[in-house]
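On clarity, I found the account of how folds are encoded harder to follow than it need be. An entry of this sort, consisting of the sequence and the corresponding backbone structure tokens, reads as follows:
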Amino acid sequence: MAAEEAVAVLMPVNAVAMAVSTVVGGWLSDRFDRRKLFVGASALLASVALLVPAVSTSWTAMLVFSVVNGLGFGCYMAVDTALVTMVLPKAEDAARDMGVLNVANAGPQIVAPFLASVIVSVGGGYTPLFLVAAALSVLGALAVRPIRTVS
């Protein structure tokens, strides 16, 4: 299968998984009133997804990666935003604080391609990139643990 054909299959698979986990993860998080648990679990799920292409580049592995990545990312996007709004210091500064958050989210998106190119070049391929990304995702999951004001 050509790369274009593969992407044409993988992207909708990822989108469906993401849509399902956004709805289900958000609903479960609200139902159990547990934001940190779902943010941490979704970040860990993303790290599992990132290990898949590091271990195997088969078509089946790419399908598994697409589904698991969609599930983790969808839940994360739904629940992390809720968690962030719950830990803002003052309601009257919420707009400013959310603006700072958006800038903080944009920074890594600017730096990541440069770091990825270094990791791929120095590491000799994409496997080290997936391993580093998986490790960073685990660190992201652990980063929510110190939050005391939200369960």
Notes: The CA atoms of residues 40 and 142 lie 7 Å apart. The chain has a mean pLDDT of 92.
